[in-house]
């Protein structure tokens, strides 16, 4: 997603002549980023041209008030131009016939909407300079178009919501090696898989309850613009899972998205108080209970469970709460302790480092990234040591079964039941899919299941 920010400020506007790109350090987390190296992204700055001399008591003519306007199609004379690697926005617009004054004032007019100096290489702008017009359009959030029109020596800036359509995809996967790997091989996007793992981890211990032959079904929606596609071509389209099903030898979980949360068929909120596994793609390497310590050499109580995963794997908050501590903690190494409701605490130890903003007093939500797996403290190998306490007493995290008590009722429950009924044809079709089967279609073109 393009970087939307209000950071850009034009101090000393007439004196800025040169572009200056952001350093790599400004693009990284301050402590312990994920070990997966992302492809380098060229970030370019806008070179602001010098304005002609003006009287010192005359303010710069810019319009910073933001307005929303109905969507209208861009003029037929609009040209699409792409920001190349190493190119500045100033040079790009200069080639399209914009003056230094116009470019400088455009950056100022947009400063509270989008920072031109943060545009990534590959970003597309729509420009129109025909018949005396001066218009620049660019993408804000996905499906949001920002228009700047030069009128009376200043830029008038408006935002319009671009028309979209919804594309529905359905996939069925019978697990052979791992849920993530098999789903990815079947064409399910990574963001959808991660969201499904997070939702299902309220009920499923992915270390002990997932076996070959288990079945996973997912339906998700993708939002796609139907106008001004070039503006948004470099952006990731929003994805949202609407239905999840996981079947093993013991259970058949069906989760329905309703009002930004997942619910079970009976209207119960599909969440547990604490996640069973606070990280993805990990292997349970040590259980709760008495064991011989691998470094100390004698038997003592192991008050938590250990997960083995690649160093730098993101660690999630098992539940919503407040950070009690996030620092070096004796033999635990770098550790985070979270305080939850009803006397519960969770501890995450041997971290390589902490996520941005994680410190004592910070409020976190369930699933937020709080740190990264490491090998600090009294630790033999990279792993996460995870403990759960109730009123100061340690308990086995794998035996904690405290489901949310939230449940829909009244008009909301009736509306949810109608929503579930409306998805019945889709869920029946998914249940009939063989492993690896999928379908993609607009929702108004629902394929028949052969009734």
TrEMBL record:
Residues 79-127 form the LysM domain. InterPro entries: Cell_wall_metabolism_enzyme, Dup_hybrid_motif, LysM, M23ase_b-sheet_dom. SUPFAM superfamilies: Duplicated hybrid motif (SSF51261). Pfam families: Peptidase_M23 (PF01551). CDD domains: M23_peptidase (cd12797). Keywords: Hydrolase, Metal-binding, Metalloprotease, Protease, Signal, Zinc. This is M23 family peptidase. The lineage of its organism: Bacteria, Pseudomonadati, Pseudomonadota, Gammaproteobacteria, Alteromonadales.
